[in-house]
Amino acid sequence: MSDSTEQPILRVKNLQKSYGHNPVLKGVDFEIQRGQVKAVLGPSGSGKSTMLRLMALLETADDGEIYLESKRIGVAERKGHFVPLSERAMAHQRADIGMVFQKFNLFPHLNALHNVMVGMTTVRKTHKKEAEKTAHEMLARVGLANRAHAFPSELSGGQQQRVAIARALVMNPKVLLFDEPTSALDPELVGEVLEVMESLAREGMTMVVVTHEVKFAQRVASEVLMFDGGYIIEQSAPEQFFGNPQHERTRKFLSHVH
Ligand SMILES: Nc1ncnc2c1ncn2[C@@H]1O[C@H](COP(=O)(O)OP(=O)(O)OP(=O)(O)O)[C@@H](O)[C@H]1O
Ligand SMILES: [Mg+2]
User: Fold this and answer.
1) 141-147, long-range: CB within 8 Å, 24+ apart, which pairs?
2) What is the pLDDT of residue 185?
């Protein structure tokens, strides 16, 4: 359970990012407490994926700060100045923040087991035998105990996405970010992925989920937030967000996705 007196596990302050002359994030402030689930909604192109990529340290912001457990990440302090981290240090910090992508992003030449193991053996330097054991356990956890030796091309989209979730989980992330994890799936495969995500939420995983699955957001999210034009324009508990949205833009958006 989260406690409002606690420090947020992840906090973002005044995050800004442009691509060329296109300002995408114009000053995003965001925080999440341990064990919370935040659902992120918003129109295409509003900057949702960009925010997740920056929080996952897959890209660098033009301005703003990211804190994980109150420690600033993505930069190192040197003589009072913040400088970019070395790639090695960055990889270590990145490992604390899991990311699950719309298109799974599995390695096609590795089977499910090796896809799940690879982060442990390369970044965490876990011994191969131990990594293998953990990977088997995590595949069982997402309902794929009997598919460990299948290659991505031999798995359904829903199975591939569950492998991707297992791959993120074995790194023991402090926060798990999901970017439209079910949008690339056939409708009949959406449920199996949402089920895994819901059980993670119940077990206390801290999650930020960009999604169009309104029912999932209603049932699972602690808070829902609306992204528009490079800002978070509204944020509230699901009952309030869906039942009585304050912002005209949110109302209009919800009338399209409902
Ligand atoms: N690597 C990039 N280079 C140039 N422009 C980019 C890049 N990534 C994103 N953009 C632009 O930034 C804006 C926001 O993109 P982003 O992917 O964050 O939106 P989104 O809210 O996730 O949209 P969607 O719902 O379609 O996934 C868009 O205008 C997009 O074209
Ligand atoms: Mg996106």
Assistant:
1) 141/166, 141/169, 142/166, 142/169, 142/196, 143/192, 143/196, 144/112, 147/112
2) 95
Per-residue pLDDT band for 257 (boundaries 50, 70, 90) equals confident
Ligand nearest, relative to CA of residue 179: 2
Taking only the tens place, the pLDDT of each residue in 178-218 is: 999 999 999 999 999 999 999 999 999 999 999 999 999 99
Q: Are 13 and 55 spatial neighbours (Cβ–Cβ below 8 Å)?
A: no
Per-domain residue ranges of the chain: 1-96+205-258
Distance 179 CA to ligand 2 centre (A): 7
Which one-letter amino acid corresponds to residue 91? A
Across the range 32-57, mean pLDDT stands at 96
Minimum-distance ligand 1 atom for the alpha carbon of 43: 25
Tokens of 177: 């970010």
For the domain spanning 1-96+205-258, the CATH number is 3.40.50.300
Question: Using a 6 Å CB cutoff, which residues line ligand 1?
Answer: 19, 22, 24, 42, 44-50
